[in-house]
């Protein structure tokens, strides 16, 4: 047989699909593995309908598709179909693990991780990372037969987890906001000197945030505050601009999150685990508006930053234009308070989780 010699390095399979909260830590780990072992191969597992079908190839990693196994939160008919769905997905995943020569499976939770854990069980070593304050079903299952379990915060519900934070992209962990600030403001067309608020609600935007912040555009303008507002690709935003005042800049999506963070003096955002970790790592004061659905983990994610004095928490149902005008506008105008909050939030951030997890993964392979 002729052909290319097989790569000599280890093959790491990462399983984290669906939302950016599962995909980004998986790719940050992938990058860290490649820095430590340039001869390694990293293969991502995902489904056609998750964000990974766009994000993973754009970051230069091969993506192997498996059927999604959605985790019903409540007892429904889908629960009865689950064993059959899982069996099909596990069989396909097992074939992929054999074909790529997997040396380890690293799961980040969600509906891609469960078939990966079950396919790897007893065949390929497993590493689990839990980003949320409360572990989900997939990671609870995976942790039972994992060689190494890591979590972002204590008390996630996974016994004996190493607390390491969340693996983040180097473009975030090495970000020097002050040095990039002028370039970032030019990039978005923001006022170079005005205090600037960054508003976003996850990759799809958040309607309740949009409806509470956009009507306050004139108040922000009168107070001399600039706003960069990512409203989501499916939402439109009509904003009243005030001549001569700092701009209110609406954008559908933030491709360059590093520049968005560098342009901002504070953020108003959801409190997904990934968002909280990034905002803390770059030292931005935050007004967190937890997603009102799920098992309350978003409020828990924000807890440590709020307790440290680096953030404020506003329940979704309380976020109104009046609340934004009375709470956020004065906060943005108080540079002393923003500086103190920035120091507090930096104290809660962890920047080295990607390297810690990559070393652990390579150690598991060595064993």
TrEMBL record:
InterPro entries: GlcNAc_MurG (IPR006009), Glyco_trans_28_C (IPR007235), GlycoTrans_28_N (IPR004276). CDD domains: GT28_MurG. It holds the Pfam family Glyco_transf_28. Its EC number is 2.4.1.227. It catalyses: di-trans,octa-cis-undecaprenyl diphospho-N-acetyl-alpha-D-muramoyl-L-alanyl-D-glutamyl-meso-2,6-diaminopimeloyl-D-alanyl-D-alanine + UDP-N-acetyl-alpha-D-glucosamine = di-trans,octa-cis-undecaprenyl diphospho-[N-acetyl-alpha-D-glucosaminyl-(1->4)]-N-acetyl-alpha-D-muramoyl-L-alanyl-D-glutamyl-meso-2,6-diaminopimeloyl-D-alanyl-D-alanine + UDP + H(+). It is an enzyme of class 2 (transferase). UDP-N-acetyl-alpha-D-glucosamine binds at residues 19-21, 132, 169, 203, 298. Residues 196-353 form the Glycosyl transferase family 28 C-terminal domain. One of its GO terms (molecular function) is glycosyltransferase activity. Coiled coil: none annotated. It is found in: Cell membrane. Residues 12-150 form the Glycosyltransferase family 28 N-terminal domain. It is a peripheral membrane protein. Cell wall formation. Catalyzes the transfer of a GlcNAc subunit on undecaprenyl-pyrophosphoryl-MurNAc-pentapeptide (lipid intermediate I) to form undecaprenyl-pyrophosphoryl-MurNAc-(pentapeptide)GlcNAc (lipid intermediate II). Belongs to the glycosyltransferase 28 family. MurG subfamily. This is UDP-N-acetylglucosamine--N-acetylmuramyl-(pentapeptide) pyrophosphoryl-undecaprenol N-acetylglucosamine transferase. It comes from Lentzea indica. The lineage of its organism: Bacteria, Bacillati, Actinomycetota, Actinomycetes, Pseudonocardiales.
């Amino acid at each position: 047989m002729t052909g290319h010699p097989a790569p000599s390095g280890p093959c790491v399979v990462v399983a984290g699909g669906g939302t950016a909260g599962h995909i980004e830590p998986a790719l940050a780990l992938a990058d860290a593995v490649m820095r430590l072992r340039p001869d390694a191969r990293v293969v991502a597992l995902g489904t056609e309908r998750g964000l990974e079908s766009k994000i993973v190839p754009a970051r230069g990693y091969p993506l192997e598709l498996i059927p999604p196994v959605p985790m019903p939160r409540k007892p429904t008919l889908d629960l009865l179909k689950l064993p059959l769905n899982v069996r099909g997905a596990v069989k396909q995943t097992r074939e992929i693990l054999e074909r790529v020569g997997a040396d380890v499976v690293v799961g980040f939770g969600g509906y891609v991780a469960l078939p990966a854990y079950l396919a790897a069980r007893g065949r390929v070593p497993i590493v689990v990372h839990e980003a949320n304050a409360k572990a989900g079903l997939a990671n609870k299952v995976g942790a039972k037969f994992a060689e190494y379990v890591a979590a972002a915060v204590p008390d996630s519900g996974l016994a004996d987890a190493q607390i390491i934070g969340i693996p983040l992209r180097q473009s975030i962990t090495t970000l020097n906001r002050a040095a990039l600030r002028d370039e970032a403001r030019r990039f978005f067309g923001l006022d170079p000197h005005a205090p600037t608020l960054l508003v976003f609600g996850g990759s799809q935007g958040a309607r309740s945030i949009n409806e509470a912040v956009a009507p306050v555009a004139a108040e922000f303008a009168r107070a001399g505050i600039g706003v960069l507002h990512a409203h989501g690709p499916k939402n439109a935003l009509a904003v009243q601009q005030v001549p001569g005042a700092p701009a209110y800049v609406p954008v559908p999506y933030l491709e360059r999150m590093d520049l968005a963070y560098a342009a901002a003096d504070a953020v108003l955002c959801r409190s997904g685990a990934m968002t909280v970790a990034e905002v803390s790592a770059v030292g931005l004061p935050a007004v967190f508006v937890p997603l009102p659905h799920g098992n309350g983990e978003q409020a828990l994610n924000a807890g440590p930053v709020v307790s440290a004095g680096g953030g404020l928490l506003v329940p979704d149902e309380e976020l109104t234009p009046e609340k934004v005008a009375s709470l956020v506008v004065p906060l943005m105008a108080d540079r002393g308070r923003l500086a103190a909050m920035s120091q507090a939030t930096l104290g809660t951030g962890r920047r080295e989780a990607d390297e810690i997890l990559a070393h652990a993964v390579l150690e598991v392979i060595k064993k």
